[in-house]
User: Which sequence fits this backbone?
């Protein structure tokens, strides 16, 4: 069926002029609304205003313009049904063969700080979703475009098929519509649930991004949904696995804590080591020195473009993935010699404050705000000292470094650190004392001294024994949330051992 009439009504004008110009050359009549019509007319294109097409004016400040039988009838009537065709002709309904609509920017609006409820409500699109759904329901006859990125493919399809689109193309576009509108409605519902504090349900809808070879293990099926490709671009290597994607996400959240040049190594989402230095190779050596066994087959992330010197250093071990904002040409050439290594370019910061964390449980899901960065709780740290002896400048820097890392270690978590590197990491233990023992053992095996180090604990020390053990290992400073019924005893033990200690007031359990 040749496309003879199109309705264009978009808030995102990307690619609109080019698309409208090309379909105009094919003899397609263009109907349009409001700002879209004004823009097309300004470009000299022939456009029929929606009010002229329907015979009804746009009213209620534009809230009512496309909810009309001549619009939805033109989209919905079955072209091969004689009765539908007769009714359409009797009611002056002309077929609309193509619709390009994208919705009011509700999600972008409510993401802005300070958006009022009234402003959010005005960005709830009514006519747009209705037209999209009508067109998608009748995809056998109607081509529907919700994403400007599809203009090029539709135009190519039209040129290849003498002004028609293929059924396969229309089916694909219709599926995209239902994914988009369901996600749009979910975003509105979730906003109101949160805003009105009357949460009754939670829903999420995301387009499929990739079907994975398998999940966490080879016998598990898996797929990736959502906008992962807006954060990372694969420059080299095999397709990403389920475990790669989880590790990459953990690495991105960790590196987001640091503004200074930093390299971190992770394995199974746990940090193996981290180091900061203006010389990236030196930062790597600090990170790698923490644990030279665990990084094999791990994830390396750097918050600066990877240099050739750094590339040569990290290429000496086998890694699954290397992540950075960019790779210098020589570094990329060198690393691409390893065919099994994935190189990932970070396109955007992790943005922890913008995400919800979702986990499946028996019979449902748990949803929570993602644990934000530690920057706020590290502000004015000097005022949070609870011991008689305040920390030195270097001890304070070591506590800050350790606190940024321990938040990303599975609980129970203990990290020993100096001002610019990790020294020992104990992760995921049932006892906090055991976590400390493992961290001390790791430092000992690596030949690293803990003398003068700071110990960071993701939750409070429930008894003095954990802090005493840290002091005996060489730690002279400690950072922890506080909040134990034994806090006074722990502080007394710190004073006795001359350990400077800070209570942040914030716990960072990670299960």
Assistant:
């Amino acid at each position: 069926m040749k496309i003879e009439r199109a309705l264009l009504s978009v808030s995102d004008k990307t690619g609109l002029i080019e698309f409208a110009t090309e379909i105009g050359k094919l003899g397609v009549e263009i109907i349009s609304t409001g700002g879209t019509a004004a823009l097309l007319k300004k470009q000299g294109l022939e456009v029929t205003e929606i009010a002229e097409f329907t015979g009804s004016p746009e009213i209620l400040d534009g809230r009512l313009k496309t909810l009309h039988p001549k619009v939805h009838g033109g989209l919905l009537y079955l072209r091969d049904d004689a009765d539908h065709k007769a009714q359409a002709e009797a009611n002056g309904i002309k077929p609309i063969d193509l619709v390009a609509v994208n919705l009011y920017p509700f999600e972008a609006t409510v993401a802005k700080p300070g958006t009022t409820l009234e402003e959010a409500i005005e960005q709830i699109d009514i006519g747009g979703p209705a037209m999209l759904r009508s067109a998608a329901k009748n995809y056998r006859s109607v081509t529907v475009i919700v994403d400007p990125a599809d203009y090029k493919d539709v135009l190519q399809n039209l040129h290849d098929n003498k002004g028609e689109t293929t059924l396969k193309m229309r089916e694909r576009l219709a599926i995209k519509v239902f994914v988009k509108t369901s996600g749009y409605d979910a975003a509105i519902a979730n906003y109101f649930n949160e805003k009105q504090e009357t949460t009754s349900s939670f829903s999420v809808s995301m387009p499929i991004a990739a079907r994975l070879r398998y999940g966490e293990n080879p016998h598990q099926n898996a797929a990736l949904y959502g906008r992962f490709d807006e954060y990372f671009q694969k420059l080299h290597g095999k397709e990403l696995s389920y475990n790669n994607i989880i590790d990459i996400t953990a690495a991105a959240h960790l590196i987001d804590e640091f503004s200074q040049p930093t390299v971190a190594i992770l394995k199974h989402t746990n940090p193996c080591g981290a180091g900061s230095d203006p010389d990236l190779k030196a930062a790597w050596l600090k990170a790698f020195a923490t644990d030279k066994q665990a990084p094999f087959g791990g994830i390396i992330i750097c918050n600066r473009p990877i240099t050739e010197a750094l590339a040569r250093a990290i290429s000496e071990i086998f890694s699954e993935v290397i992540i950075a904002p960019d790779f210098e040409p020589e570094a990329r050439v060198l690393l691409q010699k390893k065919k099994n290594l994935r190189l990932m370019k970070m396109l955007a910061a992790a943005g922890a404050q913008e995400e919800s964390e979702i986990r499946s449980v028996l019979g449902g899901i748990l949803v929570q705000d993602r644990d934000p960065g530690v920057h706020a709780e590290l502000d004015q740290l000097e005022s949070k000292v609870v011991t008689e002896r305040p920390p030195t400048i270097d001890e304070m820097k070591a506590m800050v470094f350790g606190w940024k890392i321990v938040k990303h270690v599975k609980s129970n978590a203990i990290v020993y650190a100096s001002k610019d590197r990790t020294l020992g990491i104990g992760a995921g233990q049932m006892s906090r004392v055991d976590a400390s023992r493992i961290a001390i053992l790791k430092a000992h095996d690596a030949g690293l001294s803990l003398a003068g180090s700071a110990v960071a604990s993701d939750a409070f020390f429930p008894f003095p024994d954990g802090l005493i053990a840290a002091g005996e290992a060489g730690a002279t400073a400690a950072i922890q949330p506080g909040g134990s019924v034994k806090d006074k005893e722990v502080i007394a033990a710190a004073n006795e051992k001359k350990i400077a200690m800070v209570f942040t007031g914030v716990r960072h359990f990670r299960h």
